[in-house]
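Input:
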Amino acid sequence: MNGASGSLMRAIRGPIMLITLGSLFALDYFGPYRFWRTWPLLLIVFGVMKLLERLAASSGRETTPGGPA
Amino acid sequence: MRTRSLIGPLLLILLGALLLMNTLRPDLPLFDILASYWPFLLIAWGLLRLLEIVVWRIRSRPLPPSGIGGGEWTAIVFICLIGSGLYAANQFRPWQRLGVFTSKRLEVFGRTYDYSIPEQQKPAGKAPRVLVENLRGNTRIVGADAQEIKVGGRKTIRALQESDADQANKQSAVEVSLTGEQVVVRTNQDRVTGEHRVSTDLEVTLPRGASLEARGREGDFEVLDLDGTLEITSDNAGVRVQNVAGSVRINVRRSDLIRAANVKGSVEISSGRGRDLELENIQDAVTVEGFYSGDLQFTSLAKPLRFQNPQTTLRVEKLPGQIRMDLGDFSGARLIGPVRFTTSRARDVQIDGFTNGLELSIGGGDVTLRPAQTPLAAIQVETRSGNIELALPESSQFELRARTGRGDVYNDFGPALKEEREGKLGASLSGAVGQGPLLSLSTSRGSLTVRKDTGASLPLPKKKGRADIDIVTEGGRIRVQKH
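Output:
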């Protein structure tokens, strides 16, 4: 399961980034925070997704060697 | 088998639907909606993609190496650029115009706090010059038999915490001050630090003789009962003006409605993009500029009317009756000319009772005309594609030159007018009935009708897609009748 979950993490990274991006713009237009203040969240989300991917991949490597890089 | 995403086809369908909306209902503010709501497209796109991946995973289909491919990211970057551009161009967006979306903004973050504005009074004399500046919010200004200026109203502030709102309220205190000979009322929303939206609904009472200049960015203006001049400038405002003795100048970049009634002075209106316009009972000259996507209505104008934008020109010397105009129709009754109406758009034109001649040139559409009385004056009609019908009083004397590039001719005036075929499909009708002015009609495609006026009123123009409906009760029943 773990190797597959690594690839799942990688596959959903794009969509999650996209949702975040859309939300930040929506927040700019309809909420109190301007985009130029919130954009670092994109980096954070990207980093977290990467991290989860690595974690999933490395925990996968213990059982199934050669999990997704 | 490689699993493929549904996003591409769905985006195409969405694009097609939007373009179709734009062609079918050009009056909807589609661009405004797009400019504000495009980020939700990204969110929907991401959610859909996420859902797809989860479904593929559950069905144990092979997952794509990355959720969103390089080409897609390029498209997204373009959407972001175009969307931000649209939004910036649309900065002062007309929430009021969007109807459904408008009443409450998506208030996900923060809360709205209400404040009442403490009432202020300043002596101002009988006929002061007054400047009212309200950047955001509605303004109502009323003239009264008094010598002081009174300011009150309420404020809504959106903020995360009440203390923030309190501070914003203090910073945006409404000021009434005397600068030189001018009384200045300011709402000071621009002094607020931080990103709180302060919207001020202002109620101002002025001495009746005041001359007023009102400025705003977003919010409606209503002005009643003034004897001085009035000037309103705003980026986005609905404007209602009633009972003003001086001249009125309205300059708005956008508006959902401009309405002026009972004005003794001249009226000058210029609007970048407006929707509805109503002018009624104006005693002096009326000048209107700009694009209007809704209904324009002019009633009882005592002096010349000039309407102008790059597509359309209208001039009428006096208007005891009424003119109604929208993007597809022009109808008028009791016009004193010479009347001149030229437009590059297609419009069905119907004019009932006009004097002193007519010059009409339209990009297409049917024309139905009935001059008011004899003796006639010169009439010149040109339409690119459409039928022309001219109903003349029985005793008319005129010279006719009518031509259609393709279509038939109907003649009520007998052999004095001679019909000739022109080419395979066209026809002309020309000749003289007594001695009179030249009536010249021309259409590239459509029938020509010159008939004797039987006194019956012309059929009302067909309205596309909607009808005005009056609801009348008779003995408790409701009957719906079309008019």
